[in-house]
Design goal:
20 helices, alpha/beta, 11 strands, 470 residues, globular, single chain, 13% strand
């Protein structure tokens, strides 16, 4: 009988808590004392297991259910234990004898009577891994169908989602499907507060900035232990998200829609300080709690002059009633930045719940309808010669290119024209020349910005378009 590793036990506890509470696995990991009690290596392994199982749970169940006589009768904690071992074999390359032994001990520790079942099922999983990976069990003469099944199993994602990803950006020059998926950890980038003194708290490994304020990649463990996030000396923000926030930073008035907890608000405020832009900034989000979190971090960072507003972005007249009343007219802005709610398919490595919570209807209908409604409503608040920036963290054409084209064909969109994001005014400053070049490298012939995580070390998938009001 082998000794059960503490990392696997903690991973099981995290997964069960996340499932029971409907919480995000990453949030549970960050809060649990049992994770913090592990040494760095075990904590990293527990995190890898918890996030990986979350990201691939549907595929793992497809594999396990082939060898369970009564799949619907398996206790939740037993099933989760089996998922952990199957994940190790299928995605981490853990030797079958190790994964089976540890899986049996994990089940035994929680349901002793089910240890025999676990032993039988996991041995069958180990014996049939190659068959499952290659889709040898699928009877199809259609090469594309087989390719989709193999991709689905390789990435641990639903077949429909793999199909959407293939349709969106399959290799155009014969290099084939290239997507970092949802399994490899995403690289970390940070944005530094220009008012903070961080030289003593940031480790020596901090590289030169990619562009003003942006450091990437950086070591996550070192950054967290340095305390820069708690002091608001820096925020964690994907490099491509920083590029978009930087492009949206202009002199004058700004209405930021979908500000959330304020990561892009922070980046925009910091860039405006560096560029010495005179501006006013209103950060709007549907949830008052997120507005409070945004404002609290800005105050800790020593950044003032930004107002938060809680309300519905699909009804700006109601949401901005008090602002309009003080001005005596409907307020319009030099910049309106719509950071739209989306599928998050460009950020699945950071949010492993996405693949199995997202539905086809979300991508094809629900989200695009909401995004178009928000864009049309926001356009009514853009001043003449002002700019409307639309952004998502999706890689789906349905939410990006198609929404923008539908907007431009609408009555509200007839006043706007597409202008490349790389021509944003801040990129005219010499210090931002490299940022402009990076943005330009991600723009297509229409002037749409789209980044794609094609490899494990690539940053996230983000979309943005800059629309100038005539």
């Amino acid at each position: 009988m082998s000794r059960l590793s503490p990392a696997r036990k903690v991973a099981l506890d995290v997964l069960m808590e996340a499932e029971r509470r409907g919480a995000y696995a990453r949030d549970v990991l960050s809060r649990r004392a049992s994770v913090k009690a592990l040494d760095q290596r075990d904590a990293a392994f527990a995190s890898r297991l918890a996030l990986g199982v979350t990201a691939t749970e549907g595929t793992l169940d497809q594999l396990l259910d082939r060898f369970l006589d009564k799949p619907n009768k398996v206790a939740p904690r037993v099933r989760m234990s089996l998922r952990i071992s199957a994940f190790e074999m299928l995605y981490l390359g853990t030797p079958g004898r190790v994964a089976v032994s540890q899986g049996v001990e994990l089940v035994r520790a929680n349901a002793k009577s089910a240890a025999g079942l676990a032993n039988a099922v996991l041995h069958k999983v180990a014996d049939h891994l190659l068959e499952f990976r290659s889709a040898a069990d699928i009877d199809s003469s259609d090469d594309r169908d087989l390719r989709l099944v193999r991709l689905s199993r390789a990435y641990g994602m639903p077949i429909w989602l793999c199909k959407r990803l293939l349709d969106a950006f399959d290799g155009k020059e014969g290099e084939g499907f290239a997507f970092a998926g949802n399994l490899a950890p995403a690289p970390l980038a940070i944005h530094v507060n220009p008012r903070a003194q961080i030289s003593s708290s940031v480790p020596a490994g901090l590289v030169d900035p990619v562009f003003p304020g942006c450091y990437a990649p950086v070591d996550a463990h070192t950054m967290i232990s340095s305390g820069v996030f708690e002091s608001a000396a820096a925020v964690a923000c994907d490099l491509n998200a920083q590029l978009i926030a930087t492009a949206a930073t202009r002199p004058g008035s700004c209405l930021e829609i979908g500000a959330g907890r304020g990561t892009k608000t922070f980046v925009m405020a910091c860039q405006s300080l560096r560029a010495d832009f005179k501006r006013s900034h209103y950060a709007l989000d549907l949830h008052e709690r997120k507005c409070d979190q945004n404002l609290h971090r800005l105050l800790r960072a020593g950044i003032s002059g930004i107002r938060t507003i809680a309300g519905d972005a699909c009804d700006l007249d109601a949401t901005l009633t008090s602002l309009d009343a003080r001005s005596g007219e409907r307020v319009v802005f030099d910049t309106v930045f719509v950071d739209a709610p989306c599928s998050g398919t460009g950020t699945m490595r950071r949010h492993p719940e996405i693949p199995w919570r997202l539905t086809e209807g979300d991508v094809d209908r629900t989200l695009p309808a909401l995004q178009l409604n928000m864009l049309r409503e926001a356009s009514r608040r853009v001043a003449r010669n002002g700019e409307l920036i639309y952004a998502t963290c999706s890689v789906m054409h349905q939410e990006n290119r198609d929404v923008v084209r539908a907007f431009l064909d609408s009555r509200e969109g007839s006043r706007f024209r597409v202008s490349p994001l790389s021509e944003a005014s801040i990129f005219e400053l010499p210090a931002y020349e490299r940022a402009r070049d990076i943005v330009r490298s991600r723009e297509d012939s229409w002037g749409f910005f789209q980044s794609i995580p094609r490899s494990a070390d690539a940053f996230d998938g983000h979309f943005a378009v800059r629309l100038v009001c005539a």
